[in-house]
Amino acid sequence: MNMDQSDQQMHQQEVVSTATPMTPPYQTLPMASSIPSPNQQLAYQQAQQFHNQQNQQIQVFWSNQTQDIKQMNDFKNHSLPLARIKKIMKADEDVRMISAEAPIVFAKACEMFILELTLRSWIHTEENKRRTLQKSDIASAITRTDIFDFLVDIVPRDEVKEDGLGISSIAFQAGGSSSDHLPYYYMLPHHPSPVEVSGMFYATQQACSSLAYMHWPQPPQQEPPKADT
């Protein structure tokens, strides 16, 4: 009888030891701190200031363009040749006749389009501490601006780059993302990777399965009272 009890106790100890969750063979990543460092706060403030300056430049540009259009009196001198614009318009087979005013409107529209795209490209040039506007600056301006998304297909992706001290580089140093679709220095919350999730699930599953088959000690059964004779 003593041998049976000792064997049962040893078996229970073995089951309890196997019920301990397994330590994963990898090192889990620490959770990202929600409090930004002083360097991140400084980078965020600089980016916000630069972003506000960009918006002000674009607003001033369109305000000046609106004033120029309202005060325009000379329709004879144009920055772009009207004959060339008219020739491009006639490339459409459905276009039969073109009025004299249509090329003038197109000339002004093309002029404003070039000026705005140049301004946005130059902003990217200044971000990267350069004084020469490059083709990559134009490509970056196109990808950053939603109204220019129709030009994305004609811009090679290898031309879109963020070098020097651009917004994306500063955002990366501040712990943000290089994606332009996110706000400036958007701190992405830490999410466990699939490996971490699978590891935690495996450890929990092993512990639960071991506990399910554990032989817990049963309370002694009480003998039914004997009937009085």
Automatic annotation (TrEMBL):
GO cellular component, one term: nucleus
Alphabetical list of InterPro entries matching this protein: H2A/H2B/H3, Histone-fold, Transcr_DNA_Rep_Reg
Keyword vocabulary terms for this entry: Activator, DNA-binding, Nucleus, Transcription, Transcription regulation
Pfam families with a match to the protein in the record: Histone
Alphabetized GO MF terms: DNA-binding transcription factor activity, RNA polymerase II-specific; protein heterodimerization activity; RNA polymerase II cis-regulatory region sequence-specific DNA binding
Domain spans labelled Core Histone H2A/H2B/H3: 70-142
Compartment annotation: Nucleus
Superkingdom classification of source: Eukaryota
Family: Belongs to the NFYC/HAP5 subunit family.
Name of the protein this chain belongs to: Core Histone H2A/H2B/H3 domain-containing protein
Source species: Stephania japonica
Phylogenetic placement of the source organism: Eukaryota, Viridiplantae, Streptophyta, Embryophyta, Tracheophyta
